[in-house]
Design brief:
Keywords: ATP-binding, Cytoplasm, Kinase, Lipid biosynthesis, Lipid metabolism, Magnesium, Nucleotide-binding, Transferase. The chain contains nine helices and eleven strands. It is of the alpha+beta class. The strands form two sheets. Strands 1, 2, 3, 4, 5, 6 and 7 form a seven-stranded mixed beta sheet that branches. A four-stranded antiparallel beta sheet has the order 9-10-8-11. It starts with about 30 loop residues before the first strand and ends in a 9-residue tail after the last strand.
Length: about 350
């Protein structure tokens, strides 16, 4: 019989095995804790998978906390992992580990040499709605990695954390660019390209509003649809990537130069690019139109598409009006992200 999470603190943790050529292990704990947050893509989704740049923003008010403990397996059993997931009203409670989590736990064991006969008990308290393009799966994976490292007293490098999260993302979504795995742990806006992230220079002040359409996005389906479109229409891939890279670079410059009025149209133009690729939905389009009609400087789908969320750049004095119009147009939830100037940034 498995130990309940409440009983975990009464157990004596297994002694950590030595890790060759690594920093000395800290003392193992009875409960480990890890945290991560949501993210949103400002521009560059899909194109980033093909090496084009993407701009990402952290969403710190949507967070996930993982609590990890351990218990001995039953008679004749081997170590495994059990998961309890709570937090988001749109996320049903799960008591079985997903395939991605199982692989993540197995890779963590191998990477830091944790005994295979230890059964892991993980509780995820996640406020990030799944399937909305907000990085829920990557944030959960990062929180689990950090919780396990804390549980077993291991020093894990940022690169190792990224690699473990990226592995779980590849299971969840197929080929992943790495932007989600990076952005869910970033303290500020990022420019991400070809596996490398750097701080994004921001000279603007303003607000972004993210609106949840209530539709569950399907990243794998969206990636497949885009790829099939490239195959059916010769030259479409080149056009999409060239246009996406141009809009993203111009948006990056507008962010740095304190020109929010110039930034907004690039968002809307990128939405049109994704809509032409059949990655938007009627509900997302309605939210974009409502945001623009209410005074937003620009608006677009954010994330993989075929559902999920929309993001709009809004003058501060229009935030209330835009939010009300979005809810009237069908938004299930909205979140406000302040855009704060931070010109003295440098590569991460």
């Amino acid at each position: 019989m498995r130990n309940t999470p409440e009983e975990l603190s009464a157990l004596t943790p297994p002694a950590p095995a030595p890790v060759p050529d690594a920093a000395p292990a800290r003392r193992a704990r009875t409960v480990g804790v890890g945290r991560a947050h949501a993210k949103t893509i400002l521009l560059g989704e899909h194109a980033v998978v093909y090496g084009a740049p993407a701009l990402a923003l952290p969403v710190p008010q949507l967070a996930v906390t993982a609590s990890a403990g351990w218990s001995a397996p039953g008679p004749g059993g081997s170590g495994g992992v059990s998961l309890t997931m709570t937090g988001s009203p749109s996320r049903p409670v799960a008591t079985e580990a997903s395939e991605g989590l199982r692989q993540l736990a197995a890779e963590f064991r191998a990477t830091v040499d944790v005994a295979q006969d230890v059964h892991l008990e993980v509780i995820l308290d996640c406020a990030i709605p799944p399937g909305r393009g907000l990085g829920s799966s990557a944030a959960c994976a990062r929180a689990v990695v950090l919780a396990l490292a804390d549980l077993f007293g291991r020093e894990v490098s940022a690169r190792t954390v990224f690699d473990l999260v990226q592995s779980a993302e590849n299971v969840a979504h197929g080929r992943a660019s790495g932007v989600d795995a990076t952005a869910v742990g970033a303290p500020g806006p990022l420019l991400f390209q070809q596996g490398t992230a750097q701080d994004l220079e921001v000279g603007c002040e303003g607000l972004f509003i993210v609106a949840d359409s209530g539709e569950v996005g399907r990243t794998k389906d969206a990636v497949t649809r885009l790829r099939e479109g490239f195959t059916r229409h010769p030259g479409s891939r080149h056009h999409f990537l060239r246009r996406a890279a141009l809009l993203t670079d111009r948006a990056r410059q507008a962010l740095a130069q304190d020109t929010p009025d110039a930034l907004g149209p690039y968002l809307t133009a990128y939405h049109h690019l994704l809509r032409e690729a059949r990655l938007s939905t009627e509900r997302i389009d309605a939210l974009v139109e409502a945001a623009l009609a209410a005074g937003s400087l620009g608006a677009k789908i954010t994330g993989g598409g075929l559902g999920g969320c929309m993001i709009a750049l809004v003058p501060s004095d229009q935030a209330g009006t835009v939010t009300r119009r979005l809810h009237a147009a069908g938004a299930q939830q909205t979140w406000v992200l302040p855009l704060t100037a931070r010109p003295d940034t440098h590569p991460a």
